[in-house]
Design a protein that fits this description.
The structure holds two protein chains of two kinds.
Chain A (H helix, E strand, L loop, with lengths): L4 H8 L22 E8 L9 E8 L4 E5 L6 H8 L7 E6 L2 E2 L5 H7 E4 L11 H7 L13 H14 L14 H14 L4 E5 L7 H17 L3 E5 L3 H7 L2 E6 L2 E6 L1 H4 L2 H7 L2 E8 L2 E9 L3 H10 L5
Parallel strand pairs in A: 3-8, 3-9, 6-7, 7-8
Antiparallel strand pairs in A: 1-2, 1-4, 4-5, 9-10, 11-12
Helix pairs in contact in A: 4-6, 5-6, 6-7
Chain B lengths: L1 H9 L16 H23 L7 H8 L2 H4 L2 H9 L8 H34 L12 H14 L8 H20 L6 H23 L5 H12 L7 H20 L1 H7 L3 H6 L4 H23 L5 H13 L3 H25 L8 H19 L7
Helix pairs in contact in B: 2-3, 2-6, 2-16, 3-6, 6-11, 6-14, 6-15, 6-16, 7-8, 7-9, 7-10, 7-14, 8-9, 8-14, 11-14, 15-16, 16-17
The chains are: A alpha/beta, B mainly alpha.
Amino acid sequence: MTRNASETRQRNGTGEAVTDEPPVDTSGSETASELSGEDLVLRYPSTDEPVIDGERLAATPGAVTALVGPNGSGKSTLLKGLAKQLAPDEGTVLLDGRDVHSMGTKELARKLGLLSQESTSPESITVEDLVYHGRYPHRGFFETVTEEDIRAVDRAIDLAGCGHLRGREVGSLSGGQKQLAWVAMVLAQDTDVLLLDEPTTFLDLHHQLEVMEIVETLRDESDITVVVVLHDIEQAARLADEMVALEDGAIQARGTPEEVVTEELLADVFEIDAEVDVTERGPRVTPLRARHDAEEAERSPADASEAE
Amino acid sequence: MSSESSVGSERSTPARDTRRFVWLLDPRLVMTAIGSLVVVVLGGLVQVSFGAYTMTIGQAWAAVFDPDVLLNRQAWNAFLLGGEMPEMGTESLIVWNIRLPRVFVAVIVGMNLAVSGAIFQAVTRNELASPFILGVSSGAGLMILLVLVVFGGLTAFLPLIAAVGGAVAFLIVYAIAWKNGTSPVRLVLAGVIVGTVFGSVQTGLFFFADDIGIVQSAIAWTTGSLTGTDWEQVRMALPWSFVAILLAVAGARQCNVMLLGEQTAKSLGMSIEKVRFALSGVAVLAAAASIAVAGIVGFVGLIVPHMVRNLVGSDYKKVIVGCLFVGPALMVGADVGARLALSPVQVPVGIVTGLVGGPYFLYLMRKKQNMGEI
């Protein structure tokens, strides 16, 4: 299931000389954590119909799994289910073989981090203080900051590339800079599994690439298991070792980006006609037009439901 | 990323000081504390110097620093534990037995209301929250009236009974506002409505009062008054306030994480419901302790946390500590006005805080773009 690192780098074209490097497999080592959801049925308290109805999802240990799908396909819902933000009606979520609902909230937070889609904070908090909040699950009620906390925060800020923002107030940052600060906070949590909900949406290109580079660094240089929801299918293909495509709360396809990103899938799941070229940076999607079959048109109101 | 991160790591960032209480030395917090202390001390000295029994300012100060009282164990035993009062001069007796305790009660009430408001604002993530707006005050006030008018024998347990009333009112408000989470506006609306209903019941109770004296003291309760408070009120409120304030300071970090929003707090491993419940309990206790001795003093719990946030920033460790200073400053200052402005008539201090706090709050509302969420 896991692909070796050199192959991954080659496909993503991150710039290193690839072929003559020894294939050091850092991305799928045995110590990486395993996260899987079995037969998940997820619904919001306000709705009767489940958004996700009996799906199975296993994140490849130490690799990046990307969830893609149109608006309302349930990808964020699935992510919330995996992160224990939503209690499943049926099914279980296993982290290294243990049911997450049997774990204490802090214990889980030391192993699994989640970056939500819209994060709010007081305006006048500094980036550094925000990142220190990421250490919350590692600290007891009366404990002060330890050497380890400081190291983890420095590492996270470094990795997220927001050292120059350290003393700035969050309220004074641009959207992209804010997102970097939040990424740093969730990195400071120092978890084995990281779930990211649309981390690049609403960011300018520069910051989109910054966030993607952070995830690439995590994939190449650590054992962290990453599950990321992405809106942009090309970005997902470039970033992910494995892709999962959802439509109407059901998984339509899973596999490597080359297997998943095809013209047929784009037509079926995203309802667009598109050209897919396989390049060395992974598949490139050129959207041509939206499909307007009669059947499609009837179904579209349901797709725009609140399930996202 | 590469260029930026190298810039960040090259620049020497000052190592974070890990000592536990180093944040207390934040200059803004220190200035706030000193400024507030000056107001409290000046207000206190005005309070002890003026009144029905005329004495010179020199006499009053001499009485305050009278070593016969200050260093007398029997006197403190009488003040704090309710023991036998020792012999002392007339000036010392008036200052120490009548005028100073009132200042101390004002200090305690100010601390409690400010801390209570600050916690409620964090728990509900709502700038408009305060014990007054969330119905806690009216719930506690109703229970106090019930005790005064109907169950006269339970007066000793007034803070506890007030706390129960406040907690019940808050739970009702929360339950009404709850709909897969609460929004600031729904909470405030529910609080106003529950407060109004409880207020009607309070007014209704007046008709069952036996004599006019009870009605008058009931009115003093519902407007918030420090008239006639002495060491007994200090003794009544002090232990509860001590517990509530200690817990509030300890819970400040939880408040900070709470302010990051429910989802983030949850994903950081906080048991949201438990923490919210515990912190609300602390806030209700603090509010009840002050309501039990001074009645319903409005606006202090609402505006003091605002002022403190403007002064020291949004870190709740600093906000709570700041509230412990600014709250007393506002209360002592307001009580000077309440006692001396229309002398010899004393108005309830709640009227003064309302007159000062209301306009300040309106000014905030006009100045800020989006009021509501912190």
